TrEMBL record:
Leading EC class: translocase
Name of the gene encoding the protein in the UniProt record: potA
Pfam families (UniProt xref): ABC_tran (PF00005), TOBE_2 (PF08402)
Taxon lineage: Bacteria, Pseudomonadati, Bacteroidota, Bacteroidia, Bacteroidales
Name of the protein this chain belongs to: Spermidine/putrescine import ATP-binding protein PotA
Species name: Phocaeicola plebeius
Reactions it catalyzes: ATP + H2O + polyamine-[polyamine-binding protein]Side 1 = ADP + phosphate + polyamineSide 2 + [polyamine-binding protein]Side 1
Amino acid sequence: MMQSEIKPIIEVKGVSKFFGEKTALDNINLSIKKGEFVTILGPSGCGKTTLLRLIAGFQTASEGVIRIAGEEITQTPPHKRPVNTVFQKYALFPHLNVYDNIAFGLKLKKKPKDTVLKKVKAALKMVGMTDYEYRDVNSLSGGQQQRVAIARAIVNEPEVLLLDEPLAALDLKMRKDMQMELKEMHKTLGITFVYVTHDQEEALTLSDTIVVMSEGRIQQIGTPTDIYNEPINSFVADFIGESNILNGVMVKDKLVHFCDRDFECVDEGFGENTPVDVVIRPEDLYIFPVSDMAQLRGTVQSCIFKGVHYEMVVLCHGYEFVVQDYHAFKAGTEVGMLVKPFDIHIMKKERICNTFEGKLIDETHVEFLGCEFECAPVDLQKVPLGDVLVDVDFGKINLLDNAEDGMLTGEVKFILYKGNHYHLTVWSDWDENVFVDTNDVWDDGDRVGISIAPEDIRVRVKQEER
Ligand SMILES: Nc1ncnc2c1ncn2[C@@H]1O[C@H](COP(=O)(O)OP(=O)(O)OP(=O)(O)O)[C@@H](O)[C@H]1O
């Protein structure tokens, strides 16, 4: 059957979830095909567990519709949905042995004893735990307990298996083994797996389709290769594997400028002289002793062995490039670098400065982000009092160690290193993102004060929306 002919088993349409003021999910649209292995991937707090819980029925959507196998189940309780969930914590009954844990659901449904026996044995075989049926679950290792949890979920023959970071509590070796086994199980069972993880490598290894989420929204849906090779924006590029992400300017079709020179690339349709993000994977930079062939010349800052390859940081035109190669170039070495047009990925910038909705109060005061800011005098003939837009450049937002010293406060949520500076997303306590370019080093989760000088606040007319 053609891929496109396969009916969706799960349809999520316009789904949002609010917890009080907090938007955990914002207009999610997702269609999952029968038999697919779909991974929902994203950093902590992006809403992936909430989405899974809505599909499972442990929580209800604030807006939108969820269908499973063609039936609307938005308000259907969990036990009436054709799904089973495996959680990160094994959630086994400690007073029951392995057999009784797995048989629990079947016994509840009053299935005949010999059917229960047959099904439990088959499930145990599937997870590689034959002969463990009479063991006390407390005597099992973490990995074995998780296998029992999976057996308990699949014994009910659900149409969809939901897995919420099921391997997160296991050590690295066990996790890798279990990943392979899960993939095998998926193939053998032929049912749909919806898998939640924050581990990009796990997502790339396991999935047919990856759904990348950030801040309650879907950023990109695609196959692992699509997502890795053609990330849609710098967030996805950074989240999926390591990348060099630089500010550049698309000069014209197939020509991009960064690091003080033009590079041929394959991208088109960005217009002329358009600011863009340029993404180059560390393995796509060729590094060699400096020669005329070099497009970029730089000095190696550090070189560490990573097991198979070396990872080097090369300082070049004030930008730090991460380069991976099988050959080591020692710190201090002058090197040349080359990148093929095909390996330069161009991404549209989602924004080039902060734009906030605000209210002009008088000639020198404007309200936005929940505060009243002093601004440079505004010509009231051109910009009347009332609703306005306020632009502030990324580099003109000051972050302060002492949160109380700011005009408002926030939390550093996402850090992107752009070769010669950091681009931060700060979630303000006014529940709006503030984007900041800085050379200072901040950590994810840092509480900060935010201040803006009056001369850096640009007020403009808010165009009537059509
Ligand atoms: N019951 C709740 N009440 C209030 N806020 C909640 C509740 N559940 C989740 N949230 C908030 O919704 C957002 C999304 O949470 P969710 O658990 O779905 O994220 P996640 O991507 O699964 O993160 P993690 O990997 O850390 O579990 C978070 O900001 C979280 O604090």
